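Database export, one record per block. Field names are fixed; values are copied verbatim from the stored entry.
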Amino acid sequence: MNRTRSRLIRYLITHGPATCRQVAAALTISAASVRKHLSLLCEAGVVIHGSGKYQAQPNRVERELADLAAAFQSAGSDFRKRVTDDSHFSVSAFHSSECPGTSKRTN
């Protein structure tokens, strides 16, 4: 996932629904960039747009992360070992406490 989109999702999960300008100001990113990334997140179904505000869908985000983690796990233990040994990335990072309250919210 794109780092900017990850930041946007975390912001929306943590702070709740927000306008494009509110997100841009809080994260010091241009409104045009935020709008582009939020559009992609809406297309993916992890963010919805209504009443002028964007809102993350934490349950959908969790499902997408679980699917991605499962894809890495099913790719074979050798691949998984190489990815975790050769980089800072690990499957367990998907379930970190980086997004507090992600699994607690329901929509």
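Remark 1: The CA atoms of residues 19 and 52 lie 6 Å apart.
Remark 2: The longest helix spans residues 58-74.
End of record.
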